Amino acid sequence: MPHLPTADPYLPGHGDPSYAVRHYDLDLVYVPDGNRLNGTAVLDLVVREQTARLVLDLAHLRATKLRLDGARVKKWSARGHRLVLQLDRTVAAGTALQLTVVYGGSPKPVIDKHHGDAGWEELEDGVIVAAQPHGAPTWFPCNDRPDDKATYRLTLAAPAGYTVVANGNLVAHQRRASVESWTWVMDRPMATYLATVQIGRYTTTQHDPRTRTIGPPDADLDGSFDQQPAMLAFFERVFGPYPFDAYAAVVTDDDLEIPLESQGLSTFGRNFCSSDWSHVRLIAHELAHQWYGNAVTLRQWQDIWLHEGFACYAEWLWSQESGGPRTCEEWARHHHERLADLDQDLLLANPGPELMFDDRVYKRGALTLHALRVAVGDDAFFAVLREWAAARAGESVTTGDFLGFASAHTGADVAALLRPWLYDTALPPYPAG
């Protein structure tokens, strides 16, 4: 059988580089009783490399009908977690196509030996979708690679009484008999792993015009999620304008081990309704990802430090700004000392799939930024962060892109400065000024 494509070596069996998706239109119906999802997905595609085959990612769900406008499908089949479309002829690069897929089944997470489970997950009463890095195919057919960004329109119908939250702006909400439908639009480019839907018996607390928390009616937000307006205001000062229209924190009634950001919103368990710094820091962390990770997104997973190092550094900045347990400098020294006692086998710029979410990526990534800050000074450093977020918003980037950008904007040889942090396994000395 012909070999199926892989777009990113960190996620074998995901993604097809031969085409890009420009827009996803998803029309879904979910029945919690029995965990049943049925949907129609319309994908606007552009061929990037001439091809006679299109491969989509779809896991645990069965496609029942397919239609392709702009070319003809000779045959199609499901192979594992992929849909393979054989065309009747080779189509040229630049060809626009529209693919409609009707599908359904009982969604469940994808399990990977390196990354664990991700995707559509049932709660005690509701659903979360935590797709990073490989869970998007558990709920819609897609080209699952981080460098393929598209806009989205999602309509999901669920039993009355459930709130449906997704990326972007709510543009329609209707109730008919015992069913409510919710339509959300994300009009900024978004990677598949950042697309999400959250379903629960929730109410909305509007903190200010741009920040809200959506969760159980009895959730206590004092000292935790009510800090989000202040966090957003501070991050706008240091990172530049917030890159989306609004921001939501979804708090599930269940406890969750870790939170996760999606584009324009993040998901937390009820256990994060706490003023303890160990929880508040992660509220700041996920918000910071809206600039670094969501607006500006890695092209390949090996550059995950461009997300996690930046968001971790944002924690340290917020700690200092809010009178938290340590200043930014104190956090940097603290974590440098801790890293020095750990194994020196991590290559930050290419940690490998088994270590891409290792805590050392987060802390060493933050220290890499601190080293840049010490070397070029606060004014130049924060100017780089603001200009990087603004200039590359909506794009997919690499470590090399950031090094070149920072060098051009500071006049320093940032590639040489940061090479030991990024490309050596041994931990460099603490970056003292």
UniProtKB/TrEMBL annotation:
CDD domains xref list: M1_APN_like
InterPro entries cross-referenced by the UniProt entry: Aminopeptidase_N-like_N, Peptidase_M1_aminopeptidases, Peptidase_M1_dom
Pfam families with a match to the protein in the record: Peptidase_M1 (PF01433), Peptidase_M1_N (PF17900)
Domain of life: Bacteria
Domain Aminopeptidase N-like N-terminal: 22-194
Occurrences of domain Peptidase M1 membrane alanine aminopeptidase (ranges): 225-421
Descriptive protein name: M1 family metallopeptidase
Originating organism: Nocardioides daeguensis
